[in-house]
## 1
Amino acid sequence: MKPLQHSLLLVVLLGCQFCSPTSGEAFPPEYQTFSGSLYASCRMRPNTQLPPGSPKVYGQVLFKQTGPEGKLSLRFKLHGLPASDPQPRAIHIHQYGDLSKGCTSTGGHYNPFGTNHPYHPGDFGNFVPRNGKIRRSLDSEATLFGGLSVLGRAVVIHEKEDDLGRGGDAGSLLHGNAGGRLACCVIGLSSSEQWNS
């Protein structure tokens, strides 16, 4: 084998050390570290553009997905909502992980397929707080893998309930008329430690 051919073969083999055995798709090294799973977390912080008197929501959203074909599982651990107000709150994934202008700069809903709300991956629906806290687990159509990965995008908790596309106006089909943005965070890869604790 000629040196150039040998070098190219080596590049291909090394480049695919984190590839899916079936599709050849490249995965991050954590895919092998965690036996085919990816983990992510999102540290929720209050919107820096909140009007006075708004709830200050903190906490975490945790993600786990085993392989690109597996369901994405999420855990919501949030606090800081008014304990006396059980109003449902909408939570969605937004397009950008840009917090330069608080939660405003996260853009609209992450909508890679150009569909109406509530059919975007990351339209999680409504969450009813108990004693000012949201503790909930669910599965999602969103993914941590490939070109449609939600890594680097934002999770936003809204001030109102999501009308789930039934509001009869354009806003309903864009964002569910869920109102202002109370808090947000950027989704980033993490170890399995938080998920397993």
Note: The radius of gyration is 19 Å.
## 2
Amino acid sequence: MKKYVLTLALLALPFCGQSQAARQIDSAAVYLLDRMADIIGELEAVSFVLETATDRPDDQQKMETHSSVSQVSMEGPDKMVFQTKGDKGKHGFWYDGYYATYYSFDENNYVTLDAPGNIISMIDSLHTKFDFQFPGADFFYPSFTDDILQDFGTLEYMGSAVIDGEDCSYIRATNENMEFQLWISHSNWNLPKRFVLIQKGMQNLRFESVFKSWELNPKIPNTVFEFLPPTNARLIDIMEKS
């Protein structure tokens, strides 16, 4: 698996891996992560809203926070659609098991690519080749818990906390370069509610996302995952990243 959140969320920042110091792994935290992953893995379809805020230094190294809101729907194993709107514009993505299409609402242009036949392979392929970004992708990988354990030497259950009126379990993972915080809802089928990544040093840059409006196993028409070009939209080509 590509550690999608752990590498992509702070893409512009160095990440050197975990310290070789003694590991401290809390079995209660591992249990909560595994239970969340098992519940997500049993879903046949899902929709949710993801609100994201990302710190970035500008050209003068002054801090800027960029925000966006994504509406995401998926149906396993091979259908996905989302639209993202933020201070960098609005774009959409459609995947029907055969083709993936990225569309810019602001520029009224799109690119359509052949894609692998399942969601996970599609995400890996298009992120690797074209740097596409997929909201909340890591939580849908079966190896989520293993990847946290691989990248962080300390994993702790920190107790309960209230996020947006929901009682949540609070988990924190750290290594010498990064801190990962996750709140898992006690209600709403123990799904993720909020997560934060903090890059230690370098102004403690943060990546934060909040999950809202979960719908579990909704009935989604197949046509939702098929892209229909708007009037006068331009088909363009893109190059693989070097």
Note: The domain at 20-235 is CATH 2.50.20.10 (outer membrane lipoprotein receptor (LolB), chain A).
